[in-house]
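Query structure, 147 tokens:
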């Protein structure tokens, strides 16, 4: 039986529906273990200023070198992995609600941006990506060369 796709909150907190947990317990008792690692999905805030689009997301516990940010003129993809310390046994936990593992998020931008001028800053677990908007009114004079 294929379990239903978990909601973001269920993936984030590691909780599940009682029916699914019972089905997993039943399959484990028969020695059947389905290995499916789901990716967490980042929550984001996206807003604009007159000159840029700003994207903010929480990446606490992730080293900057473990983040992969890809930007095109109309889309941003953030991928990463939050590693859990393996020093603690599962049976020693009273509560285990933090999300550990791979995560990603792709955001379609409301307008085109200047990819080369984008910047990403992480401070206290908050990742802020500033994406300057394309200035459509900008004009350049083109000189004609004679060959």
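Result returned for the query:
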């Amino acid at each position: 039986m294929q379990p239903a796709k978990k909601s973001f909150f269920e993936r984030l907190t590691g909780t599940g529906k009682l029916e699914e947990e019972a089905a997993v317990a039943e399959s484990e008792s028969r020695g059947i273990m389905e290995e499916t690692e789901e990716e967490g999905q980042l929550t984001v805030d996206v807003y604009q200023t007159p000159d840029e689009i700003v994207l903010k997301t929480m990446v606490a516990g992730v080293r900057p070198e473990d983040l992969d940010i890809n930007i095109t003129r109309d889309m941003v993809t953030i991928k990463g992995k939050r590693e859990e310390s393996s020093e603690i046994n599962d049976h020693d936990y009273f509560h285990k609600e933090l999300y550990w593992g791979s995560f990603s998020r792709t955001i379609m931008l409301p307008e085109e941006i200047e990819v080369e001028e984008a910047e990403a800053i992480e401070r206290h677990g908050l990742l802020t990506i500033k994406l300057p908007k394309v200035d459509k009114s900008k004009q350049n004079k083109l000189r004609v060369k004679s060959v």
